[in-house]
Amino acid sequence: MKRKLIVSLAVVLFLAGALPLQAARIKDIAGFGGVRENQLLGYGLVVGLMGTGDDVKNGFTKETISNMLSRQGLSMRDKTPKAKNIASVMVTAQLPPFAKTGTRIDVTVSSIGDATSLQGGQLLMTPLRAVDGEVYALAQGPLLIGGFAAGGANASVTKNQTNVGIIANGGLVEREVKYDFGKEKKFTINLFQPDFSTATKLAATVSSQVMTLEAQAIDSGTVAVRVTSSESNMADIIARVENIDVPVETGAVIVMNEKTGTVVMGENVRISTVAIAHGNLSIQIKETVNVSQPLPFAPKPPESGGVTARDRRNGTIVAPGGQTVVTKDTGLSMQEEKKQLMVVPRGVTIQDVVMALNAIGVTPRDLITIIQAIKAAGALQADLKIM
Whole-structure pTM over 0.85, yes or no? Predict the structure, then answer.
């Protein structure tokens, strides 16, 4: 019985060691060389606004309206349009990889003039160009703002951004980006987070699981893959490769955002033996102004001024009222938090670090200060990133 238990434990430990830790699919941690989106940009006009468009006194809107109407056969020479229902906009879009002619894409429309709102507007046909200057798509259609703006002379209300809108499926692809995987029997895998350990394990995993491929890590972010067989369908090969699970190595990183009080720690964060004490000393000074108001007909010194009268009983000079006195009362209070000195042992995990810091009652903003102090002391084995 004892021998069977030992054998069973050995099998469990072997299987646990064989399973990859933190395995992820290649498609989730890397991309393939050359397969990417392309940015498109265009300049156009939005019409149909309800008096919320550009002031056509600015040069580019005036010239754009004149050129547009001239192309429609209307001469605008020596004429100044005064319409407030037109706005000049920049149109942006992302051209997906392998997008074919006739594919619909979403576009974003942003005002570049002094228009107050693009609500209810219609984008006129706008060519979208890539960095090479070629037109790859055309955009046109009604805008979706997702907000509103309304107001009068003394009050106004606004919800969300009214100078930026989108047109769902408002772009029509007119030119394709050529991708040719058939000529060369090789491709590259580019890691989103470069790491030598991950790149090496990725290359070894691909070579072992797909016998017709030879993978080699070129650097911390690139793995070169070569096809050794006569198989010509690269789409099938990449489909098999992108679904392979590989172990992912993560570095020890702490990300902190002091503006929001956010602290994110990786599981590999370690610290050396360190003693931590954190407390706040708060001093509050409060001043109160008191006014001493005398009773009616109280005696008032003659030197203080005012209307005087002679007392009929003894002949002294008295004032018809007393003098108002302003006094200041200053209050001082001091409070110091009593925190204990906490010793954190060497090489603890992130869970132990958090538990130890919670034991001394730190807040997220206090935690940022403490981590920075531990890093300055040289006791933090992690990369510190402050946003």
Answer: no
Per-residue pLDDT of the chain (387 residues; tens, 9 = 90+): 444 433 343 433 333 444 445 788 999 999 998 888 999 999 999 998 888 888 777 666 777 777 777 777 777 666 666 678 888 899 999 999 889 999 999 999 999 888 888 888 999 999 999 999 999 999 999 999 877 666 665 666 676 778 899 999 999 999 998 877 667 788 899 999 899 999 999 999 999 998 889 999 999 999 999 988 877 788 888 889 999 999 988 888 888 887 887 888 877 888 777 776 666 544 455 657 676 666 665 555 555 554 444 544 455 444 455 567 767 776 666 555 555 555 666 656 666 767 766 766 677 777 788 888 888 888 888 888 888
For the chain, give every domain's residue range. Answer: 38-173, 186-247, 254-281+338-386
Q: Cα dihedral sign for 52, 57, 63, 68?
A: positive
